[in-house]
């Protein structure tokens, strides 16, 4: 069975042009959707079981259903292309290799939620992706696939490309909204949720790029066909990003539910230099780490990864081979979180920096077991006590690295420093 | 006094028309200013504040929140080496070592000829092609020792 629902044209010459897209049935699904009622489109997406691909995995159709029925204000769709969870790079490939797929998804989704304007919030660093999308939007306007009265349906749709400027937190949906309004990207207190009061104080839906790009396929083939892929609760395919110590890192689209080890072997070509797995981060840097024993039984779906104490998140798998220092890896991530905290809530702002400094001491060999407890206390006391989930995103790796690989930390105390060699994987 | 060229001013007006509220154009306008003036000096930020009719303190607060807005001038080539986990696992530290010793600068510094500024940055979303770096707007991926040397030589 063909499983490349979204990635079919990745890497194919000219795949990003409108001509290419049209020659493969491009925008036919938008035409089809516009002949349905918006409610029918929402129903189709709801029944497909499609869940948000940005990290939280919330059912997309249900999210769309949260929009108030009686609010006279305009509605907005914000496409979250901020993609900044370390290990994740799937949205970048969609935007660079098949931008019109995303645009068609936006047209259909906006029609479904009765919105006439979408913003694509793309992270500032994706300059190349920005230029590709800019061109695609221009082409689509010229041919009338977006703009006023598209396909003579009476439906108007404008798409605005909005470039971020370097802030991990802007992937959080209310931080993204603040940033889009021209402010610092600091998350808002919820409720109200964006569906009720989002950008410009209007009802807003924020969806990830891969979520929106899944919609045209669902419209073309129907919810039942989509739900044939994956498991009962994790339907469809997922574009997993795999990086770290594997032979063929990259993006691979597979039906959800594939065993992790099979994915690493068959898709990513196995671990480099024939080494054994030391640990795997399954869903982006924020998700709890898995041990080799966890890896033996875990499958790539929301439920199986949760049953193993972690999260599928944004589907970003990072493989750490034997010989990798777990403390050093945690230190790397703590540096990341200390740098990226937006600074709004004290437990997070102070906590992440304190965790970073303490893990640094452990790696250097100047810490004691008491410091290990300090990191755990910090993690436990910031999670759930802040406006957004950033504190949890930093606490989860800290807690899981320490509890699952405690021996490694103890070894640093005994050795009075790091017992491992510095990473030296850079090829000649 | 700093001012946009006519071409940039036209872009600014197009940008402004895309948002229902003027202030929402702040991030794109700061980008326009950075491309036009090289970096965001106090004067540049005051100009942006005037264009958007908002207090200069607001502009400064936003510009200082986002890492990609340059508050100080950098070398002709801003070399940003990704340091986060996936890149570190594939040798990002070695990339930094090679570049810094080749150009005889430390991280955060600019070469005396103002050609290169070297920095480490957090995840650039290019983990599958690690290690990697960004030079100005462009990504350089799947780096090797010889590739790093060639890239720096070609820009020197």
Characterise this structure:
The complex is a heterodimer of chains A (428) and B (156). Chain A is an alpha/beta fold and 428 residues long. Chain A has helices spanning 18-23, 28-34, 38-48, 60-65, 90-97, 99-113, 127-142, 173-180, 209-221, 223-227, 260-267, 292-297, 302-307, 326-340, 346-364, 369-382, 390-404, 406-415; strands spanning 76-81, 117-122, 158-163, 204-208, 237-244, 250-255, 277-281, 316-321. Chain A folds into three domains: 18-221, NADH-ubiquinone oxidoreductase 51kDa subunit (Rossmann fold, 3-Layer(aba) Sandwich), CATH 3.40.50; 237-321, Ubiquitin-like (UB roll) (Roll), CATH 3.10.20.600; 326-415, de novo design (two linked rop proteins). Chain A has 18 helices and eight strands. In chain A, strands 3-2-1-4 form a four-stranded parallel beta sheet, with helices on both faces. Chain A has a four-stranded mixed beta sheet with strand order 6-5-8-7, with no helix packed on it. Chain B is of the alpha+beta class and 156 residues long. Chain B folds into two domains: 6-65, Arc Repressor Mutant, subunit A (Orthogonal Bundle), CATH 1.10.10.1590; 77-155, 3-Layer(aba) Sandwich (Glutaredoxin). Chain B has seven helices and four strands; from the N terminus they run H-H-H-H-E-H-H-E-E-E-H. In chain B, strands 2-1-3-4 form a four-stranded mixed beta sheet, with helices on one face. The two termini of chain B are 33 Å apart. The relative contact order of chain B is 0.12. The model of chain B has no long low-confidence stretch (mean pLDDT 97). The interface between A and B is large, with 61 and 49 residues.
């Amino acid at each position: 069975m063909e499983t490349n629902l979204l990635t079919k044209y990745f890497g194919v010459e000219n795949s990003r042009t409108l001509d290419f897209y049209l020659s493969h049935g491009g925008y036919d699904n938008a035409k089809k959707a516009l002949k349905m009622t918006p409610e029918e489109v929402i129903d189709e997406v709801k029944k497909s079981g499609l869940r948000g691909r940005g990290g939280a995995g919330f059912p997309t159709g249900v999210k769309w259903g949260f929009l108030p029925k009686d609010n006279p204000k305009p509605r907005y769709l914000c496409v979250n292309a901020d993609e900044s969870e370390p290990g994740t790079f799937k949205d970048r490939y969609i935007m660079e290799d098949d931008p019109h797929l995303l645009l068609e998804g936006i047209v259909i989704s906006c029609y479904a939620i009765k919105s006439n304007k979408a913003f694509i919030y793309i992270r500032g660093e994706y300059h190349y992706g920005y230029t590709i999308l800019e061109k695609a939007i221009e082409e689509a306007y010229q041919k009338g696939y977006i703009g006023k009265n598209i396909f003579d349906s009476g439906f108007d749709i404008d798409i605005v490309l909005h470039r971020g400027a370097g802030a991990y937190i802007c992937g959080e949906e209310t931080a993204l909204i603040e940033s889009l309004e021209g402010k610092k990207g600091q998350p808002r207190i919820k409720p109200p949720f964006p569906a009720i009061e989002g950008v410009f104080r209007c009802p807003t839906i924020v969806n990830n790029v891969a979520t929106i790009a899944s919609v045209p396929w669902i419209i073309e083939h129907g919810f039942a066909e989509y739900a044939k892929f994956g498991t009962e609760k994790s339907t469809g395919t997922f574009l997993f990003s795999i990086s770290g110590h594997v032979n063929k890192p990259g993006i691979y689209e597979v039906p959800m539910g594939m065993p992790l080890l099979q994915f690493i072997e068959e898709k990513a070509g196995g671990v480099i230099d024939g080494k054994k797995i030391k640990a795997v981060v399954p869903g982006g840097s924020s998700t709890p780490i898995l041990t080799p024993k966890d890896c033996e039984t875990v499958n790539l779906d929301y439920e199986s990864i949760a049953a193993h104490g972690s999260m599928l998140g944004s589907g970003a798998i990072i493989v750490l081979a034997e010989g990798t220092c777990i403390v050093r890896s945690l230190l790397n991530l703590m540096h990341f979180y200390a740098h990226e905290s937006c600074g709004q809530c004290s437990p997070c702002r102070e906590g992440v920096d304190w965790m970073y400094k303490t893990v640094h001491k452990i790696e250097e060999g100047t810490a004691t077991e008491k410091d290990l407890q300090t990191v755990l206390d910090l993690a436990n006391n910031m999670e759930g006590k802040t406006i957004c989930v950033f504190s949890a995103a930093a606490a989860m790796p800290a807690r899981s690295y320490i509890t699952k690989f405690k021996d490694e930390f103890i070894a640093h105390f005994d050795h009075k420093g790091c017992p491992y060699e510095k990473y030296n994987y850079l090829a000649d | 006094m700093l001012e946009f060229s006519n071409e940039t001013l036209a872009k600014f007006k197009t940008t402004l028309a895309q948002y229902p509220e003027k202030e929402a154009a702040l991030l794109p306008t700061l980008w326009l200013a950075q491309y036009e003036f090289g970096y965001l000096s106090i004067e540049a930020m005051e100009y942006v504040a005037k264009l958007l009719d908002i207090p200069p303190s607001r502009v400064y607060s936003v510009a200082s929140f986002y890492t990609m807005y340059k508050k100080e001038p950098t070398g002709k080539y801003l070399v940003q080496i990704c340091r986060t986990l996936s890149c570190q696992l594939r040798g990002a530290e070695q990339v930094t070592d090679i570049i810094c010793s080749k150009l005889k600068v430390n991280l955060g510094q600019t070469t005396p000829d103002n050609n290169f500024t070297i920095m480490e940055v957090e995840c650039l979303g290019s983990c599958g092609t690690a290690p990697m770096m960004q030079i100005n707007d462009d990504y350089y991926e799947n780096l090797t020792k010889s590739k790093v040397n060639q890239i720096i030589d070609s820009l020197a």
